[in-house]
Amino acid sequence: MKNNQAGKQKSAAREYTEAIVIALILALFIRTFIVQAFKIPSGSMLETLLIGDHILVSKFIYGIKNPFSGSVLIPIKSPKRGDIVVFKYPKDPKLDYIKRVVATAGDTVEIKDKKVFINGASPKDHYGEFRDTNIL
Question: What average pLDDT does the structure give for the chain?
Answer without folding.
Answer: 83
